[in-house]
């Protein structure tokens, strides 16, 4: 890393020539008119502008590069420097001080504007505190009109008009010939302007021409991970850079791929195709119509690819560990990503089908998104072996231990790669039980505190309830199924209604507990009014079912119908808790634990 201080004029020349460009992960600049005027005032006063940061390319950019806005050329140019920090400042200065077209900017409300920038000579030679007032922006026609009468208050349509108004056009400040031509016109109007011009040249123009920009230059050997870290640290006021954007620019800049395919690699298009294909078949993986990153994200997919890639390298002795940290993603070679992406696409489709069989059908019902990455990675590695009944049974047990034991809460940095390796080993008949299965515990009193979808175990128990054969209390012709749950607006409903619980002084912790809730359609929920003993006959009557038959339907929700018909909440709570715990034990393949009450 080196610190340099080139002249602003030289930097703008580099931008014009394409020697300094942006890495493609940089977003478009968005500075408003006022900030541009304030920046120009800073330059004319020779006040510090702040450090900019660049990355040397060594003649071969590690990322796909693009010119700064306004510096586009007909033929692409290989840059010498990539601008990592300072895009908005340098783009603003390039457009305002170096281009012969109005600057594209916005007003304070974000409305698009096009502006020329001038400096009022008389104000500029006054006190420096007034410099902000000396910087003027005008519309493309170079006329400023009164808001009420629309009469022209300031006319700068030609050089003579500019000179009469004593407003110097800043876009010619670095063009010596044009400055001299403008100066001759200015002093020709009035001999007194010689003195004013001399003061202006010394106080403003010379400072602009000699203005230095402190610049940090990172060496070309700087790793992508370091570039990402540096960018995030210096770009504290912008939108955070994510790994997907950095890889997009890296892959797009792969010259070997471009030469073989006559086009650059378009990672966003690849991901869009994968995401739409997966979510069309399996809505649980996201709703791209809301946001492409909804549900399964690009980072999730990249991490799954990295898990398989590092696992393969470990098998060949090229790396010590399976990992999916940021550096692993950034070091993922394009040929290997291109090779593995189709496999992971198939693997996530398998995951979508697996979740459907577990009766998890909507993104909001997914207990842990992070648990999908090792699951997909293992499927991509094992392939058809995942469908072997014994292996699938073990995989399913691992999944529910992770959900009900809430093993994927908090940091999963070490658990994810460990699960990949241990699940692959467990696929062998004599394989060791994975830590996630061995360590998972469900405490019996956890039922009392599960009350919202914030908990993975909460979502998991309801999915298991549907999976074991729960039947809706209105659409009762067949058990709840993934294909009809969305169609019938099946959601979590209270069994003993909220108002009934309040009137009967049921503790809120029990009234809101998962024990007092079940999965029912919106149509069925409309009748959940008053006490259970009063709404059950209504539901039975609407469905055309005899009471004793309807009791069988109620029982599919692991509820003793007698408890509801007698409105015995306490007995209901004890009995249903017992049945839900048995459901949990069957899924985890182990018993639940009773915790002794703490002594007071």
What's the arrangement of secondary structure elements?
Elements: E1 2-4, H1 8-17, E2 20-23, H2 33-44, E3 52-56, E4 65-66, E5 81-85, H3 87-98, E6 103-106, E7 112-120, H4 121-124, H5 131-134, E8 135-138, E9 143-145, E10 152-155, H6 159-165, E11 167-169, H7 176-189, H8 193-209, E12 215-218, H9 224-234, H10 243-252, H11 255-261, H12 267-281, H13 298-315, H14 326-330, H15 334-357, H16 372-382, H17 389-404, H18 415-426, H19 435-439, H20 456-467, H21 482-485, E13 491-494, H22 498-503, H23 508-511, E14 517-520, H24 522-525, H25 532-542, H26 547-555, H27 561-565, H28 569-588
Parallel strand pairs: 2-5, 3-12
Antiparallel strand pairs: 1-12, 2-4, 3-5, 6-7, 7-8, 7-11, 9-10, 13-14
Question: Can you describe this structure?
Answer:
The protein has 600 residues and is of the alpha+beta class. Helices cover 48% and strands 10% of the residues. It is built from 28 helices and 14 strands. The strands form four sheets. The chain has a six-stranded mixed beta sheet with strand order 1-12-3-5-2-4. Strands 6, 7, 8 and 11 form a four-stranded antiparallel beta sheet that branches. A hairpin with a 6-residue loop joins strand 9 (143-145) and strand 10. Helix 13 (298-315) crosses helix 15 (334-357) and helix 13 (298-315) crosses helix 16. The longest helix is centred in the middle third of the chain and has 24 residues, at 334-357. It is elongated. The two termini are 62 Å apart. The mean pLDDT is 91.
